[in-house]
Amino acid sequence: MNILLVTMCMKIGGAETHVLELAKGLNKKGHTVYVMSNGGEYVKELENSGIEHIHAPLHNKKIKNILKSYKILKNVIKEKEISVVHAHARIPAMIANWVCKKEKIPFVTTAHGIYKVNPILKILTSWGSKTIAVSEDVKQYVIREYGVKEENTLITVNGIDTEKFKKDINTDTICNEFALSVNKKKIVHVSRLDKETSLVAHLLISLAEEFPDVEMILVGSGDAYIELEEEARNINEKLGSSHIIMTGARTDINQLLGLADFFVGVSRAALEAMAEEKPVILAGNQGYLGILEESNSNQARETNFCCRGYEKPTAENLKKDIQMLLTKSEEEKNQMGIYNRNIVMQEYSVNKMVDDAITTYEKAIEELKA
Fold first, then answer.
1. Domain at 2-159+349-369, CATH homologous superfamily
2. Cα-atom radius of gyration of the chain, to the nearest Å?
3. Nearest Cα to 306, choosing from 186, 226, 191?
4. Long-range contacts: 329-336, Cβ < 8 Å, 24+?
5. In the prediction, which pLDDT does 304 show?
6. How confident is the model at residue 117 (pLDDT cuts 50, 70, 90)?
7. pTM for the whole structure
8. pLDDT value for 118
9. For 252-276, b where at least 16 C-beta lie within 10 A, e where not — what string?
């Protein structure tokens, strides 16, 4: 198949990493894959993997960008003889839906999360003949809020590259770059640091003085970054050391996670930390589950490790769980890490994600032919 994946951009983020791993996985299975977006840090990795990236201004709904993207998409479908188009965000899906209907091309969408709904957004939201959801609660959301038929939805996973994310990653380069202490424990948090996704980063910074023997490494960028950086700078000046490290957007997430004594966060980044055998505290803007253990792992799975529907994190519950992990023995933490990696190995492989996508493409192609 000639497959076109369309998304807003290829910057650092969970959905973008999903697209990256899906494209690489489809390519390895012998399909010709193209990715169309407004660009970003992951374009280089796509191209290094032999996947062509096509630039189109799919990142906003300005009329001139919509018209330009429509034209580019239409030309690419014809020139590359695209078999199926797979959209991963609202704006690309809207444009791709128009083009695919006109050109009679199978169209598939993936729902990566639960977002606000209003009458205007409903009008602007397009779903393919087949829709892939990344968790059960996301599937029920698109059925309930958008009327997508259950028989046209499929649940997939955020596939993790377990060769890239594994135990004992070499972190010497990162340690030297940020002048990290060899004697301090390290908490790593990876997230898009926008105002609506940065609650945990703010909480970690607020708790830094409570844990003087811990370095907190916050990875990501976004519209809340400058505010967070200022908060971190004030704490570091007060403590007289680089206690909180703000790395900005990075593509070497596996090495940064390798630094962690444990990880705090949600979603794909949590799964990547789990693949590296790290204990995990599940905490995000949408909810808090705390330390990931067998007792709450099913709850975590139901929301794709995003904690949707649970109480929001507070400084108090986060502090309690950090203290608990800091007091655990190395053997206890090792066992937690082994349990976490086993979950990823058994249930969250790239291969499963790719096979789910191929199955969906084949169904969409067959349905259009009927």
1. Glycogen Phosphorylase B; (3.40.50.2000)
2. 21
3. 191
4. 333/261, 333/262, 333/279, 334/277, 336/279, 336/291, 336/292, 336/293
5. 93
6. confident
7. 0.90
8. 82
9. ebbbbbbbbbbbbbbbbbbbbbbbb
